[in-house]
Fold this protein.
Amino acid sequence: QVQLVEGGGGLVQPGGSLRLSCTASGSISSINTMGWYRQAPGKQRELVATITTGGSTDYADSVKGRFTISRDNAKNTVYLQMNSLKPEDTNVYYCNGLIRGTGYSAYHAYWGRGTQVTVSS
């Protein structure tokens, strides 16, 4: 029942900005840490940023100072504001959430299907 849906990806010029969103829906009891990951073809998925329920954040070195992760707990939504985008930021970005579904005692890591971000002139 639980699903994550990303949005906000697209094509942007170098130096531009995009804001990604990810909303969790379904039969949810609670949501813990959420995060953003990215994966280029033929490469391993890498962590971009994470945020706890209390708002503590962690970023990959490659995006520090340019990306900002935030969340709206009331909306079960996590955002990734991406500024000063570079061509190397081009990737499929995936949302991840550590979520406990209704009737379950344990948290499970759920993944969205991904949203494409392309940085090119």
Q: What stands out?
A: The mean pLDDT is 96. The chain is about 0% helix and 55% strand. The two ends are 40 Å apart (CA to CA).
